[in-house]
Amino acid sequence: MDTIEYLFPVVSTVHTLAAVVWVGGMFFAHMALRPSLMLEEPQVRLRVWREVFPRFFAWVWLCVIAIPATGYAMVFVDFGGFAAAGRHVEVMHILGWVMVFLFIFLFVRPFANFKVAVAAEDFPTAAKHLAAIRRIVTTNLILGILVTIAGVSGRFWG
Ligand code: HEM
């Protein structure tokens, strides 16, 4: 086995762990944290999200760097290019970048505006930006689940 081949399991593991952290974090936020916080007063809810988002998004930044880096490493070093990698990798590639761009947009627009509104204690405006964040996270959660299905099952059909 070439030295570089010893790295394949590491690269693949980092790719999968980053997907688990990103998609799993969105799943928890959407399915468990959000319904629980709906029981609280709007101000409490908005302040909790203000604390939750920066902590989670720091990990998401790591994931949006690690996922394409390890993905391209697998495509070009392991498979020898997109032509040999299969359709499932093309699907993952396109949807993966859509997810990354949606996250970057979320971070620089609604999340930035949300922070300003919470700091100004303008809670109605903060709630409006929170709704925009929720729509993007929901979209990315659905895409993330589809991409994960493509990633794990694609070698059987791609
Ligand atoms: C630039 C974007 C991406 C590229 C180039 C890429 C590339 C790849 C490649 C080449 C594989 C191996 C496929 C196989 O063995 O048949 C893979 C697997 C996988 N990918 Fe991606 N991927 C990308 C984005 C994503 C995203 C956004 C997610 C989920 C959030 C994801 C989740 C997975 C999973 C769960 C696997 C299966 C585990 C593995 O074989 O490592 N990928 N990806």
Fold topology:
Layout: H1 3-37, H2 42-79, H3 82-85, H4 87-119, H5 123-153
The structure holds protoporphyrin IX containing FE (HEM).
The site of protoporphyrin IX containing FE has 26 residues, from α1, α2, α4 and α5.
Describe what this molecule looks like in 3D.
- With 158 residues, the chain is mainly α.
- The chain has one domain.
- It has five helices and no strands.
- Helix 2 (42-79) packs antiparallel against helix 4 (87-119) and helix 4 packs antiparallel against helix 5.
- The model has no long low-confidence stretch (mean pLDDT 96).
- The structure holds protoporphyrin IX containing FE (HEM).
Condensed summary:
This protein has 158 residues and is mostly helical.
Total count of helical runs of at least 4 residues = 5
Rg, nearest Å: 18 Å
Number of strands: 0
Number of domains: 1
The shape is elongated
β-sheet strand percentage: under 5%
Low-confidence stretches: none
SSE succession: HHHHH
Give the helix proportion (percent range).
over 70%
Bound molecule kinds, no repeats? protoporphyrin IX containing FE
> Largest sheet, described in full?
none
Return the structural class.
mainly alpha
Average pLDDT, all residues: 96
What is the rounded distance between the termini?
A: 26 Å
Characteristics:
5 helices; binds protoporphyrin IX containing FE; 158 residues; mainly alpha
